[in-house]
Hints:
The structure is a homodimer.
Chain A: E1 2-6, H1 13-23, E2 30-35, E3 39-42, E4 49-52, E5 54-55, E6 64-67, H2 71-76, H3 80-90, E7 95-99, H4 102-108, E8 116-117, H5 124-129, E9 133-134, E10 139-142, E11 145-148, H6 153-166, H7 168-177, H8 196-207
Parallel strand pairs in A: 1-2, 1-6, 2-5, 6-7, 7-11, 8-9
Antiparallel strand pairs in A: 3-4, 10-11
Helix pairs in contact in A: 1-6, 6-7
Amino acid sequence: MDIVCLLFDEITALDAIGPYEVLSRLPGARTRFAGPREGLVRSENRALGLHVDVALEHVTSCDLLLVPGGFGARKLALDPALLAELQRLDQTTQITASVCTGALLLAAAGLLNGRKATTHWAYFEQLRALGAEPIAERYVRDGKYATAAGVSAGIDLGLALALELAGQEVAEAIQLSIEYDPTPPLAAGNPARVAPALRERLYSRSHRRDHELSAPAK
Amino acid sequence: MDIVCLLFDEITALDAIGPYEVLSRLPGARTRFAGPREGLVRSENRALGLHVDVALEHVTSCDLLLVPGGFGARKLALDPALLAELQRLDQTTQITASVCTGALLLAAAGLLNGRKATTHWAYFEQLRALGAEPIAERYVRDGKYATAAGVSAGIDLGLALALELAGQEVAEAIQLSIEYDPTPPLAAGNPARVAPALRERLYSRSHRRDHELSAPAK
């Protein structure tokens, strides 16, 4: 299982690291971190540096392509060269997956046209505008495309893919090895089950920077 | 809130990135990634490169110290210079926290002597041998020390600390922003609720490399 995970500037780090921590434990898995160019990228808040080991253009194929989200993903969704690389690599995959607003990148590349998919709850309209049919589920499978909801949902998707690819015994061993027995001290993780005021405040905050994306390039 | 997260070679990446993704969203939080020396480190399986932005010796103080685990943590628990840095920094913190076998590092530094603490389920004996009292809970608080169980438990600990430090409204907003509504497709995350054979197999595998740590240095 040859796994390629996309990294880029202004990524939401957990989008990538959640499923990485699960999928890289599959027997025989080889995980590579690829990006627009080799070298250091930084997370959404600039606090964390992550290393792109290989430029996407040098990746000839992979079995599983994993596309995380973040403000940087929304930026890259406007980059035709990057979208062309995703289209090319997608033709070699067994599974193409996204977490959070990584789905907007897949959709912008035309890969989710007419397909059921999910993304971070605050970006359903954008996903629909890019031709996909947004579904409010933890993760959605349509053909070889597997999309997860916001940020932490990538862990659940990772386990679901581990189950599919390697069977229950392996998936259970991975779950136990990362002690994934979630016990959130609060119950505010699902947008359908929180106060509308909280949801609206977060929605506005999520989109606060997105107007930069439609401004003309400097 | 000045947060310092330790990074090192052979770290379990999710141990660090789970609580980072939560805690760095606290209003006014500043997160720095520190390690034995500045530069690139790689995760336990070498697949992921993470960047240490500041050498630990150059960090004069922090409010919250976060110590992740992994095989590299078990190695560093034998490094007196690193343990001395942790002891020094701990004297400046409001909260000193660990995830997974990061607790073994805190314990080796003498910070958990006689304290209740937790760690990855496969390392309770090692934690006890280092002077702490292991407790099988998702996370444990004793004085200013907050320790989480294995790998993914750092997300739950992060939210518990966010709740404590910034109140329910902020913690709920963080939980919703990372859409933390876990829906594991399997139920094998708790060692007390899996088949003993699975637990024993994983226990052996977890400790497979640990004999290297007691071998004489080359």
